[in-house]
Amino acid sequence: MKKKILFVCLGNICRSPAAEAVFKSIADKEKDITFIVDSAGTSGWHEGEPADSRMKQHAKKRGYNITSLSRPVIADDFKRFDYIVAMDLLNYTDLKKMSSKEYHHKIYLITDFTKNSNYKEGVPDPYYGGADGFEKVLDLLEVNTVKLIQFIKEER
Predict the structure, then answer these.
(1) Under a CB-based contact definition with an 8 Å cutoff, are residues 73 and 102 in contact?
(2) Is 54 a residue of the active site?
(3) Parallel, antiparallel, or unpaired: how do β-strands 34-41 and 83-86 relate?
(4) So what's the pLDDT on residue 69?
(5) Where residue 20 sits, what CATH number does that domain have?
(6) Residue 96, phi then psi, degrees to nearest 5
(7) Does residue 113 form part of some domain?
(8) pLDDT of 48-79, one tens digit each?
(9) Active-site hit among 9, 14, 38, 112
(10) Across the 156 residues of the chain, what is the mean pLDDT of every consecutive 10-residue run?
């Protein structure tokens, strides 16, 4: 079985490339599902740029290698991916506006998969903060990635 997942944040330089790397690392242990994983931004501000160096540095400390280059969400993404996972409510809302209703069932908020989460509005953007913000993002992505994989397995 093959499932395609797209992680989305605003600029595709912090949260969604980190989500892509964390998911790939954790999902690599799955034997009965093959995952195709990518990330994109609801804006094209950073198109072609690598991920934020601070996010790459914090991810590397945990053994995650962020190699993706920023790209914007395109119309074909809504057809191509099985799950489109927004990092926060703003991106979730933007994705719904960008897509036709026939694809809305594919769009999720990253924290939708974790019951009793204190982060109902998603993963906070660490861009303008300090090191703690990047660490918190990675903590949340690790927990929510495991829950997302469980959700996908149960949905089969």
Answers:
(1) no
(2) no
(3) unpaired
(4) 97
(5) 3.40.50.2300
(6) -65, -40
(7) yes
(8) 999 999 999 999 999 999 999 999 999 999 99
(9) 9
(10) 96 97 95 94 96 98 97 98 98 98 98 82 91 95 95 88
DSSP string, 75-114: HHHHHH-SEEEESBHHHHHHHHHHS-GGGGGGEEEGGGGS
Q: Is residue 114 part of a domain?
A: yes
What are 46's two structure tokens?
């950073």
Check 52, 94, 112, 125 and give the catalytic one.
125
Q: What is the pTM of this model?
A: 0.96
The residue segments making up the domain with residue 83 are 2-151
Instruction: Please state the domain count of the chain.
Output: 1
Residue 125 among the catalytic residues = yes
pLDDT at 116: 66
Can you tell me the distance from the alpha carbon of 73 to that of 71, in angstroms, rounded to the nearest whole number? 7
Query: How far out from the chain centre does Cα 46 lie?
Result: 16
Closest-CA residue to 122 (of 152, 155, 154, 86): 86
State residue 62's pLDDT score.
97
Cβ atoms 91, 19 nearer than 8 A:
no
User: Residues 15, 38, 52, 77: which is the catalytic one?
Assistant: 15
User: Does 156 reside within a domain?
Assistant: no
